[in-house]
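Human:
Take a look at this sequence-structure pair and walk me through the tokens.
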Amino acid sequence: MRSFSLLLIMLLMTTMAVAQSPDRVVRQDERFTLYQSRVVRDAKTNLEWWPAPDIDVSWHDATRWTQYAAQFNGGWRLPTIQELETLYEAGNGEHNLNSMFQISAYTVWAKKQKGNRSAWCFSFDTGQASWAARHRSPMKRVMAVRTVKLPPQKENNQP
């Protein structure tokens, strides 16, 4: 419960900061754009990723954090294993994950549960999905994900 309280406080602080100023680009490469809010936009998959504060998190707290994030900024949820796999880049940095994601542990919770006590997670060290006890949090992180909302395209009504 303590880690969830810390996550919630950090989420509220980040949300207030984002609401008070426009989200500025901090860093950008061919695929990813890192914003001041710590949100990372993936141009390849049309997804936005929001890493939670960099602390150990149980699956239950990860779920709660994404639910609160969805209430404040809309559309955030826990990722699927397939979505996490799209971020895996063998040989990219020490842990096969772009450094814009700013996390120090490289196993991230996924949405899908396995039975009553376990949930799936993805390791960027190995590039493999596995399941872990939902109440255990050592070296597990959470990243919320949502689909980028693109502005509607104007139709070309020229004769």
User: Anything to note?
Assistant: The chain has one domain: 2-147. The chain has three helices and nine strands. The longest strand covers residues 107-114. Helices lie at 2-20, 59-73, 81-85.
